[in-house]
Amino acid sequence: MTAEAILAGLETPLWALDVAGGTLLWSNPAADRLLAEGAIEALRRGALSRCRHARLEDLYAALEAEGPCDEVWTVGPASAPRGLRCRCTILRDDPGRKAILVEGRGDPEPALAEGSVVADGGTGDSVDSLFHRAALPMLVVDLDDDGRILGGNEAAARLYRLEREALLKRALWQLDSRGRAVLNELESALRRESAPWGRSCLHRAPGELARSLEVHVVPLARDEPSKVLAILIDVSDDRRLARESMAHQEALERLVAERDTQLTAARRAAEAANEAKSNFLANMSHEIRTPLHAIFGMAQLIRRDSLTPRQTERLDKLDVASRHLADVISSILDLSSIESGKVSLSDDTFELNALVRRVMSMLEGQAIAKGLRFVCEVSTPDILLQGDATRLQQALLNLADNAVKFTHSGGITLRAIVEHEDAGKLGLRFEVRDTGIGVAPDLMARLFSPFEQADNSSTRSYRGVGIGLAITRRIARLMGGDAGGRSEEGQGSTFWLSVTLLKAAPVLDAAWLDTAPAEEILRRDYSGCRVLLVEDDLINREIAMLMLAEAGQFFDVASDGEQAVMLAARSDYDLILMDLQLPKLSGQEATRRIRELPNGRRVPIIALTADVFAEDRESCFAAGMNDFVAKPMTFDVFCRTLLRWLAGRRRLESSPL
What we know:
Layout: H1 3-9, E1 14-18, E2 23-27, H2 29-34, H3 37-45, H4 50-66, E3 69-75, E4 82-90, E5 99-110, H5 127-133, E6 138-142, E7 148-152, H6 154-160, H7 164-167, H8 181-192, E8 199-205, E9 211-221, E10 224-234, H9 236-303, H10 309-339, E11 348-351, H11 352-369, E12 373-378, E13 384-387, H12 389-406, E14 411-422, E15 425-434, H13 441-447, H14 468-478, E16 482-487, E17 493-503, H15 510-513, H16 518-525, E18 530-534, H17 538-550, E19 554-558, H18 561-570, E20 575-578, H19 587-595, E21 605-609, H20 614-623, E22 627-630, H21 635-654
Parallel strand pairs: 12-14, 18-19, 18-20, 20-21, 21-22
Antiparallel strand pairs: 1-2, 1-5, 3-4, 4-5, 6-7, 6-10, 8-9, 9-10, 11-13, 13-17, 14-15, 15-17, 16-17
């Protein structure tokens, strides 16, 4: 469809005028119906009076200077003139021609507009008759004579509730509730515009029901610009609606502001409650883990002595109970940290096969004790990965531990499969299959919700807090995967988790390749290293001292942060073990001060702490610590940590600068 056809089909009246010739260039059918037939023909012939032609030139000049404007035009024959609000715009279809595009807006009303440029197409009533009969209120005003009213029609008299004779005895400002201000506005409007067609200001009629009037002013003669025709258009309803809209908007803004205030207060209250919960959990963790570490560590040290079978059995029970308590505390804190978004994954390099075998070794003894087979299958055993090995191991332990717990005959299979590889990223899937009691399918989804178990009754046969699978799923999702399971009651279960990890480059490390126990390597290759132990708890300090002695290390002891800095300044240590909550100086502040010492920049500093939240770990690394080990810890973990950093220190010292 062409543009001309589209414009012709519009219900909006449109016509274009040639300014130089005063002729009609184009009009659509809607404009033809609105204008009198005689007027159209007259415009096509250029039958504009000289005055109206001049005003067309003035309008073009105003449009060129100020841009599009709104005007009141008179359309139709002289016998039935009507006022029409129009939008006037310069038509730029031909650079060599001045043209104006006029767009009619709204419905025309009976009126008289002296500024109209549309030609009369025939004869009719006198101008005076049309003026007095017009539906729109109109006044003739002399602005130079204090706004005296020279003439007014019946509609204006009705508006001001005056007889026409009384109207002619007034000045315009006497009919405005603001007084002479209306004259100043009209004069300013006339001075401001180069072509004063339909220039308007606001006028307020007095009375109990004051009306807001828009005044369109048109000079009646070029030589007497002070005498103007004022056409009054009632905009009271428009202004009332605008005021109501503004009031609604202000009320809405107040409501939004109130809601924002309420939400801010609620958010602050929630943040305060969450902070209080975090502080409580942190304090609870520290207060429980500290004595638990003493129980845990002392039991391991006692086990190294010569024991009777009965003592060994009792120690085994103590060990199982303390491990269970440590697992429960760790699980609750892990779930809280993950749900609050405070968990940050570490970036370790580890061997897939070693991690899976380590999980198996932790549970193999329990499985054998129950007469179960425990099989481990790794599709690509030699592959190295980069990611959080501790979290992944925790997730796998949760699955495998459940399998051992709920299986009474048969066996358990732990599988690790590389499903896909893309741009150095590996998609891994781990499965734990068992021949245990199984789970009803309708209960499977519930198991991955916190604190849910297949049997939540007080008489259930299996203990636990029911958060292991929830933690496993959250860890898997943090690593770009997921976790799930399938099972049939009485037929066993298969639980799985998937993760996406980076493939790591091979690392050749003699200590890593050595398959001997860490304690043996320490005694053989690193005996006599000097370690500074910083611990304020008397029992935990004694346990750490015994562990260091068992590992063949020399050590000094500090019981507060200031003493640690003093000892570090006096001696060169191969390693510093630092608690966090210390008297006088915290572990973090003591570390910062040691790092400022000439001999303290390269010494490895390891946090041994019962503060295990992510922010605790981050604060340690920010202070300059090299590693973070949570209490309670096994003697094996203690030895492996020492070996890792003592070996690294030796390699660093032997490498050329």
